[in-house]
Design a protein that fits this description.
5 strands
Length: about 290
């Protein structure tokens, strides 16, 4: 082979090498960009799911208020009808018009007070929810779901975030999140707190744990004791309970479904004393 041909072969090999390097670099760039786009798509989906949950919660609250308003309007209509009948038949009966008017006024005052108490409770619940969500990091929000339904705040925590694998012992990773939840509980002293454990339907096979009832109760008890012993929450406000596998959010036929069903809920509710007092002092509608 003469020098000219040898030179041409060297040039061809160099060109192929450069082309191969360029292709690998472009492939790496495409893979990096694809990974970034995939992560952004996942974040967008999670954000959309959170907003849809929020919309559902608000719609539920609106329906509840509409039902309460409808009931109040129906009661008022009945009282007004009774007054109209009394005015028509005043000469034929011994009904005191003044007394009936007082009953209507008393009922209207009671209804207004009931609506005010309900509105105040709903407002406090929304503030509680917003304060908790603002305190959580983006990573925590992926494993902690906060909702307000029918005047009750539900904080749902994934079991793999709270407990050691296959155990009811609290892991170290949960400490930061539980401390934030405990602060919210401490700030709202007029609220009771129920810790509710839930499992999937896969039978438990650990020694000294008979079944999923046991596991769910033990996990709830672990959270209660952590809130009391580690964060100073008044134990008189705390209740631990387990529902085993019998309160699923979705099907247990898939791993994703089982993961969603394995959860612990911290349920924060206004104390019922003030509402029971209102009911006890409700005016007679007869």
């Amino acid at each position: 082979m003469n020098k000219k041909n040898l030179f041409m072969v060297v040039l061809a090999v160099a060109a192929l090498t450069l082309s191969s390097c360029a292709s690998k670099k472009e492939l790496a760039n495409c893979q990096t960009e694809n990974k970034s786009l995939t992560e952004k798509l996942q974040d967008a989906r999670e954000d959309l799911a959170a907003k849809n949950t929020r919309i559902t919660s608000l719609e539920e609250q609106m329906r509840g208020m509409q039902q309460a308003l409808k009931a109040a309007e129906e009661k008022y209509a009945k009282l007004q009808e009774s007054l109209d009948r009394s005015l028509t038949n005043a000469s034929q009966n011994n009904i005191s018009i003044e007394k009936l008017v007082d009953q209507i006024n008393e009922s209207n005052q009671y209804i207004r007070h009931l609506v005010e108490v309900k509105s105040k409770s709903d407002s406090l619940n929304m503030v509680l929810q917003n304060n908790l969500l603002r305190s959580l990091s983006n990573d925590e929000k992926k494993e902690v779901d906060v909702q307000v339904l029918k005047g009750v705040v539900y904080i749902s925590l994934a079991d793999n975030m709270l407990y050691k694998s296959g155990s009811y012992e609290i892991n170290d990773r949960a400490s930061a999140t539980l401390s934030k939840i405990a602060k919210i509980i401490m700030d709202y002293k007029d609220y009771d707190v129920l810790i509710e454990g839930n499992t999937d339907d896969v039978p438990i096979t650990r020694q000294n744990i008979r079944n999923n009832w046991d596991l769910s109760c033990l996990r709830a008890s672990s959270v209660v004791q952590a809130l009391q012993n580690n964060y100073g929450v008044d134990p008189k406000r705390l209740t631990a309970g387990g529902r085993g596998e019998y309160n699923p959010l979705t099907t247990n036929t898939t791993e994703v479904g089982r993961q969603r069903n394995r959860r612990t809920q911290i349920i924060i509710t206004p104390k019922l004393d003030q509402f029971m007092d209102l009911i006890d002092h409700a005016p007679d509608g007869e």
